[in-house]
Amino acid sequence: MTPTEKPTENQTQNQRLKKAEKKPPSRPTLRDVAREAGLSVTQTSRALNDHSDVAKQTKRRAVEAADRLGYTPNLAARRLKMPDARTQSIGLVLDTSSQRFSDPFLGDLLTAIVEEASANGFELQLSAPSGGDDVVDAYKQAIKQKRVDGFIVLRVTNDDPRLRFLVEHSIPLVTFGCIDDAHPYPVVRETDDCFQPAIDHLVELGHSSIGCIYVPLGYGISDHRLRSFHRALAAHGLEAKPEHVGGAGFHEEVGYEVANRIFASEEPPTAIMAFNDLLAFGALQAAKDHGRSVPDDMSIVGVDDVMASRFLKPALTSMRYSATEIGHHLVRQLLGALDEPTANGEVTVRPALVIRESTAPPPKPH
Amino acid sequence: MTPTEKPTENQTQNQRLKKAEKKPPSRPTLRDVAREAGLSVTQTSRALNDHSDVAKQTKRRAVEAADRLGYTPNLAARRLKMPDARTQSIGLVLDTSSQRFSDPFLGDLLTAIVEEASANGFELQLSAPSGGDDVVDAYKQAIKQKRVDGFIVLRVTNDDPRLRFLVEHSIPLVTFGCIDDAHPYPVVRETDDCFQPAIDHLVELGHSSIGCIYVPLGYGISDHRLRSFHRALAAHGLEAKPEHVGGAGFHEEVGYEVANRIFASEEPPTAIMAFNDLLAFGALQAAKDHGRSVPDDMSIVGVDDVMASRFLKPALTSMRYSATEIGHHLVRQLLGALDEPTANGEVTVRPALVIRESTAPPPKPH
DNA sequence: TCGAGCACCCGAAACGTTTCGGAGATGTTC
DNA sequence: GAACATCTCCGAAACGTTTCGGGTGCTCGA
Fold first, then answer.
1. Does pLDDT of B15 surpass 90?
2. CATH number at residue B287
3. Integer distance in angstroms from CA A30 to C1' C28?
């Protein structure tokens, strides 16, 4: 019965048998491709890797056989034979201890990095120092096991042990932000005059007494911004009074506290430049509590252009970095360093001033 | 002279030369460890891998020799020999096309995932579909090259092609959010009554006419939340009027537009539940433009507790998910699925209601 | 004394790739 | 017609592991 069914049943059975005999769930190997193409394994390998001493037509034959069989080279075998070959992935370790404060920038930056890396055929290996291990252990592991070709290092600090380690072992890397002017690796950093647009804006509005709230010194980014702040003022023949300058944290509480101190000084400034938006939020609140209206009595500028900034009342004038741009630069610089280990260029990114409602001319003296 | 010695001397000299020529800065190999320990390569391997048929003392000798030499096994060789061994890394592909809107949650979630993964000895492989490739190509690649043991899939949609592919090839995975009640993989999702606390809160305040603004249907999370919304109302014997419900986007513009439509309806609700904070921001603006004061005339609740929410005026009442918790669950579920391929459990997370200033009793009818 | 059973050990073969050295053609030069 | 490039191609040896099958000795009971 069911004479139509029988043959198909047999067929499937045969297929199963054949598969079972050979290697049912096994990928085709180079040898299979060679056989399919009627070539030697050697020539097949050379053909697929586009070497010089193989005839054009042979190459074609090999390639065709390869995709007829759906061949993908076995990465492990290749890496075993060519230990110096690229891993095609770049590492990034998230220092969750110093990164405790959730960086509103981080998601966008990672997205941009991954995007650019993928576009260049690289992947991103994310890891975090686990448990009681040293921070550099995460790096050590990754390179001992040859899992990555190089690293992107974020939030570099003064005399950063991670950088010391990587440089010492001559592992390619790129940093975002930078401490030292002499760095044997490429760097993506803010322009030296990164705060200039903001200060220019304030000065144009008529401000001449400008304070600032900085993030903790020791982070590359902080020292740099502080220098930039003073330099931008100097360009206008201005100077910040010591009592108008302070900081020591990342969060709005610190901004609040420092702003309070500044407001309480003898001759408070008419504008405050906060080194990030959270600090600016704190300053905003402090101004409110001091009965100062923003922007009529006091202008405030932030940095980062966190999403919150545009929903505030008053909406915060801020300097925006393009995470996309930075991510792309980071990856490209690192890839460059892979090809040319001595590469140590600098790419500078300039934030864009986003003018909103928190800046205005200073109150008329009466 | 010393005709017996000559050859040996020559030999050793040759050996040394060969070594020196070969690769001075090369990692120690298993053979080196074996020699150092005075064992065969076989036994050394078995000793280091803690197999059964090797004497206790031998194990010790091998281990000691290994760390005396600073030996790390060559991953490539091991994987070549044991193709089914774990890769110790989990994959996550960022669909940058659907993730265009920068998710404020993403950074925190990734951090949590990486943290938990690292704590368990796993890394996170991030990639993105490159160029014109299909979205699933990124997955295909990663598994063809055996780079990951499993995947975390975010933002699942109705009939998600990625899920189809992964399930079909029986690759372990875990999703955040879920469409189907029957899923052959573990899932981390919101509780069915995720909106209940918010609705309870509104009802307790006295609201009985509540609208909502949803994110595009087709995303697992959206359908789920919509059901939860209706269910939570029903629990109080309430029902949402069709004209009080709408949505089709993620951003504040959509929130603004939909809220406007709702306000223009015959009998507008006294409260609106927005499916994310951005939508709520838009609704807030719309209320303002309609001359409705929030919360006096109209209560608004968001979801996500984006940082902006607490800086708004009025500060937004919102439902907060713990990215840390979700990330940890995702990783743990996936690791479970690696050990037990048929695992298909559900972990539900419940958002916490953060009550701020945007909710209050409805206006007294007069 | 023998064989069996046990606890431990080792040589050698594999995994899938690249590459080194050589080798058959074919053309080119004296 | 010998010598020598040039263009193709191939066999076989690696790379560093794991594991299979086969050893040693040794003890124990018969």
1. no
2. 3.40.50.2300
3. 37
